[in-house]
Amino acid sequence: MLPVAAVLVDFDGTACLHDAAEHLLMAFGGPSWSELDDAVERGEIGLRRAITGQAAMVDADDRTLLAHALAHCPMDPTFGPFVQWCASHGVPVTLVSDGFGFYIEPLLRAHGIDGVDVITNTWGRDDRGRPVLAFGSAHPECIGCGTCKMQAVLTARVALGPVAFIGDGQTDRYGALYADIVFAKDQLAETCARDGVPFEPWTDFDDVVRRLGAGAALPGPVSPVSCPGWTTD
Known about the structure:
Layout: E1 6-9, H1 20-28, H2 33-41, H3 47-57, H4 62-72, H5 79-88, E2 93-96, H6 104-110, E3 116-119, E4 122-125, E5 131-134, H7 149-159, E6 163-167, H8 173-176, E7 181-184, H9 186-195, E8 200-201, H10 205-213
Parallel strand pairs: 1-2, 1-6, 2-3, 6-7, 7-8
Antiparallel strand pairs: 4-5
């Protein structure tokens, strides 16, 4: 029996070896797309506003975008076996992404990975064919993120029990703060260290298997009263 009842996993740079949204912006986005990321880092705008602006810069049809993602953004080869391992223990794995979203299911199918729920933004087009995003997995009050990873973790904890969160980047901070155990690398590891969030460093999902399989006690969530990404304006 594993010490957690659910596993939530970031997609871009975590389950997928590359940040698919970033790859698409580099290939098909306007020249100023990275300035929006910089503005988020400086605390000037929220993540939802940034990704909304970046989606609007994408200049290619959906077929071209998906073909590019499939060609250039491979899944971590240890993710599929990890999903199967969790399933063998009765623990569901859910992908939680604040990216463009549309490429996740096709990439899973292309790598023969099934049995994974996906929480993400919804990619669409307006009446002039321009990309737009809908935020059906957002927090009902906060407008900071497109997909609320805090909400995803808290919902899983109430419904199932202790949650493991696995990630690498900025949006993962808000899930990590509320998870019972965190696996962090790259920017998320730096953020967890600053936030005082205990975390397990990891390179691939085999590392996660070894730690969860050992059955050691969970650190428990930090659970700040207010998420540091919280904003209503």
